[in-house]
């Protein structure tokens, strides 16, 4: 087989199986897939805040924040923090975000001694156009999963939406974006990977994934749970399932965990998207008034913020996100950019929430409610930090 080193991106709704596929492909002998970076949502729409990137000082600031803004410092690699930024800058061919991204991912691939890299950030789904501008030969693996199972996983996790209405809105929008790209891109660049099929027939699905990537299928990838990323993730409540082989245990879990009332709420928001994706709705949509919808969204935002520093909460993750936002504001105060000239941060997508920009950038809760509840930042966790 003629191999390609084209970069690949794992996208989809959070809790749709993207982490599972990340761990599986990262166990391939040729593929380097590090922990989630969130580079496109966190940096690509904010490049204007660095000033002129052709200036060495501005470009160095971007690279520095990309590598030091990771929640898992340096992807867990044993690198020298006093020299890593200069090393990365020296490897770039020009002062662009795409080059910074490439050299950081290549540095990880070099460290794990693999020739090809890929990256999993679910919200890269909002930046497919920009990824293709930076990497025209990029390939996309999009996870498709029953939105009600996605909602259950999110509601039971330490992050994500806090009620089924908010979960349904998020799933519907992401599903719609993915459908659009599936129609737009060729079969050589976009592949939908259905979670339920991966769980039931992992060997067959992974053979198809390998063929799409132009790689040999390696049955050993199904031993992913013995790999470093999966073993570390499995120590957390949210990703305990990564400690064992692929299983059908989590297929159809909404029947156990969502009441008929909640299933009706989900159907009211996303029945059409469920049907287009091939899932049977099974219940009648439950009418939702505008007042009730507004309450659902406010409670979602409040609870997200109030539980950030709860046990296994994501306050460390969130603190790094907030730190990056602070750096942007500091550059604005220094006159490097103005809000009037700022481009819209996430393409042509219509906002779902009043804090939509923060949500797409990976924030777990809106700054408004973090300030309201006086959530204190913490940059060092006592447990596993993802």
Plain-language structure description:
46% of the residues lie in helices and 6% in strands. Helix 7 (147-155) crosses helix 8 (164-184) and helix 8 packs parallel to helix 13. The longest helix is centred in the middle third of the chain and has 21 residues, at 164-184. It is mainly alpha-helical and 386 residues long. It has a domain at 290-379.
Briefly characterize the structure.
The protein is mainly alpha-helical and 386 residues long. The chain is built from 17 helices and 5 strands.
**Sheet/helix structural class:** mainly alpha
Relative helix content: 40-55%
Q: Could you list the spans in which at least 5 consecutive residues all have pLDDT below 50?
A: none
Instruction: Please give the radius of gyration in angstroms.
Output: 20 Å
Global morphology: globular
> Topology as H/E string?
EHEHHHHEHEHHEHHHHHHHHH
- The assembly state of the depicted protein chains is single chain
Total DSSP E strands:
5
* Individual helix count: 17
Major beta-sheet overview:
5 strands, parallel
Q: Report the β-strand fraction as a percent range.
A: 5-15%
Strands of the widest sheet, in order across it, are 2-3-1-4-5
Mean pLDDT metric: 94
Separation, N- and C-terminal Cα atoms = 35 Å
List descriptors:
protein-tyrosine sulfotransferase activity, mainly alpha, P-loop_NTPase, TPST-like, Protein-tyrosine sulfotransferase, 386 residues, 17 helices, transferase, five-stranded parallel beta sheet
């Amino acid at each position: 087989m003629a191999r390609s080193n084209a970069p690949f991106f794992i996208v989809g709704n959070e809790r749709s199986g993207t982490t599972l596929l990340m761990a599986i492909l990262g166990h391939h002998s040729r593929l380097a897939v590090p922990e989630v970076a969130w580079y496109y949502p966190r940096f690509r729409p904010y490049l204007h805040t660095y000033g002129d990137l052709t200036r060495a000082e501005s470009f160095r600031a971007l690279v520095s924040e990309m590598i030091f803004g990771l929640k898992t410092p340096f992807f867990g690699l044993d690198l020298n923090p006093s020299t890593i930024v200069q090393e990365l800058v020296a490897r770039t061919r020009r002062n662009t975000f795409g080059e910074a991204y490439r050299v950081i991912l290549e540095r990880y691939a070099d460290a794990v001694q693999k020739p090809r890299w890929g990256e999993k950030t679910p919200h890269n789904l909002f930046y497919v156009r920009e990824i293709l501008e930076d990497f025209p030969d990029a390939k996309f693996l999009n996870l498709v999963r029953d939105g009600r199972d996605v909602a259950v996983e999110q509601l039971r996790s330490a992050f994500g939406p806090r009620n089924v209405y908010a979960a349904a809105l998020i799933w519907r929008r992401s599903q719609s974006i993915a459908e659009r790209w599936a129609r737009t891109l060729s079969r050589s660049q976009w592949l939908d990977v259905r979670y339920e099929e991966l769980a039931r027939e992992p060997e067959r699905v992974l053979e198809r994934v390998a063929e799409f990537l132009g790689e040999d299928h390696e049955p050993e990838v199904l031993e992913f749970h013995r790999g470093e990323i999966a073993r570390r993730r499995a120590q957390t409540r949210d990703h305990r399932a990564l400690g064992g082989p692929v299983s059908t245990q989590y297929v159809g879990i909404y029947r156990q965990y969502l009441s008929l009332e909640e299933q009706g709420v989900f159907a009211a928001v996303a029945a059409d998207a469920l049907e287009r994706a091939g899932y049977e709705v099974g219940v009648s949509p439950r009418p939702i008034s505008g007042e009730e919808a507004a309450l659902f969204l406010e409670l979602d935002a409040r609870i997200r913020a109030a539980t950030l520093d709860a046990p296994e909460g994501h306050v460390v993750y969130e603190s790094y996100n907030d730190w990056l936002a602070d750096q942007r504001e500091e550059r604005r105060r220094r006159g490097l950019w103005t809000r009037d000239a700022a481009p819209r941060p996430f393409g042509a997508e219509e906002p779902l929430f009043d804090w939509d920009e923060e949500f797409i950038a990976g924030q777990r809760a809106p700054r408004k409610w973090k300030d309201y509840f006086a959530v204190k930042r913490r940059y060092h966790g006592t447990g596993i930090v993802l």
